[in-house]
Design brief:
Elements (H helix, E strand, L loop, with lengths): L2 H5 L1 E2 L5 E3 L1 H6 L6 E4 L3 H4 L10 E2 L5 H5 L7 E5 L4 H12 L4 E5 L2 H7 L15 H11 L4 H4 L7 H13 L8 H17 L8
Parallel strand pairs: 2-6, 3-4, 3-5, 5-6
Antiparallel strand pairs: 1-2
């Protein structure tokens, strides 16, 4: 068994959280990497880790029926929330070495760690992320106040503020939430300066 599980942060539900840098530094052979996102998400802008097997959250229990209970399993999703739910399910099924990737693919991409991504996936600049946010949320003062060349921290702070306090007069909250999610994904993969590649 690996040092990765032993050094991961224990959670009350019985699984352990692994930091993205920890996984990047130590990826033991025999580790089952399981991505619980929907198949279309694996080929989306956040990409996926090399060697991952797909098992959407709704199918995790069924997929796990074939795995030995002492297998080291590391679950991955977009932000770490769905994979935490999947980790809890595996612990309930009797798995003893279950891990969750803290922060998921958002955190992995933010750290600029290796990702399998479709060749057609262009990565935006931070200014392009700002422009996307402005186009989707016109007239929102926090968004309009962003500088011409915003930093990752400035964009993240605006997204956090918008998440915490929905702008007044908003009619379509589902569209607003979808915009925040999509822009947060763009921010995770964004580069500083230059044109898209």
């Amino acid at each position: 068994m690996s040092h990765l599980f032993d050094s991961a942060h224990p959670q009350p539900a019985g699984y352990r959280d692994v930091d993205v840098r920890q996984l990047a530094a130590e990826r033991p052979s025999g580790l089952h990497l399981v991505d619980v996102r929907e198949p279309s998400e694996l080929d989306g802008i956040l990409g996926h880790l090399d060697g991952v097997r797909a098992a959407p959250l709704a199918t995790v229990r069924e997929a796990a029926a074939l795995w030995p209970r002492d297998t080291e399993v590391l679950l991955i999703c977009r932000s770490g929330a769905r994979s935490a739910r999947a980790a809890t399910q595996l612990v309930e099924l009797g798995f003893t070495r279950v891990m969750n990737l803290r922060g998921g693919m958002l955190a992995w991409n933010t750290e600029a760690l290796p990702v399998v991504r479709l060749p057609s996936s262009a990565t935006p600049t931070l200014a392009e992320v700002r422009d996307t946010l402005r186009a989707r949320l016109p007239g929102v003062s926090d968004v309009e106040a962003l500088p011409r060349e915003p930093s990752r921290a400035e964009l993240g702070a605006v997204l956090d503020a918008l998440q915490a306090t929905t702008p007044s007069g908003l009619v379509d909250t589902a569209s607003f939430e979808r915009t925040l999610r999509e822009v947060r994904d763009l921010l995770a993969v964004a580069r500083t300066g230059g044109a898209s590649r």
